[in-house]
Amino acid sequence: MKLIRDSLYMTQRHLMALWRQPFWIVFMLVQPVIWLALYGQLFRRVVELPGFHGTSYISFLMPGVVVTNALFGGGWQGMGIIADLERGIIDRFLLTPVSRPAIIAGRILSLCVGGGVQSLILIGLGFLMGARYGSPWIGLALLAAASMLMMAAFGALSNALALVVRKEESVIGASNMLLLPMTFLSPIYMAKALMPEWMQKAAMANPVTWAVEAGREALQAAPDWGQVTVKLATLGAFTLLSLWVATRAFRAYQRSV
Asked: What distance in Å separates the CA atoms of residue 42 and residue 27, rounded to the nearest whole number?
């Protein structure tokens, strides 16, 4: 199928560019590693409060940091579109027979590959710092899947925003305005039962919460697979909707040039 073939080609193109600057992955990991190291020590006594069920704080924190890294990685994806728009790369692709949806799909797929590598590194660091789980292998696989779904969703929305506003400053402003509040309106650093009631209600509608809770539940010794399935299915639906929005934004850009 042409769409799949072209999407894989575009993915390869972006991965080759990433291969030429592998330190990008390292630089993107600096902040989440700081969260793991500093927050893990700063709040390690908080698990003595009701709501943490006796787990160590690093075990509680690690899935949240993996998801946070995916959130910010996806949220800043639109900056690449801005750079390609300014250099005329997108317009040159429009002169080729490449499938139009593949131009966006290739970006999202390459983003998920890079994000998956980062997730594996963060998971390994979490284990080195003492994180332990009841069902690690399948749970970690589902945590990585949830984080990549969320990265794809926010990457698509970030691309859509970039195609609409076409200004670096606007993408930066929107990302700063949305990503940090979404992080704190989710149970990444604190058990949801200990959050204020209004924040608990806001967290229920937050995709970050769906990803974190799906990953954490899958890592339990006796997971509630029904809950995991519902969270992942909801996250998958949100991802499909985001991809549709990005596709519509790209078609709007095509009509404007």
From this structure: 23
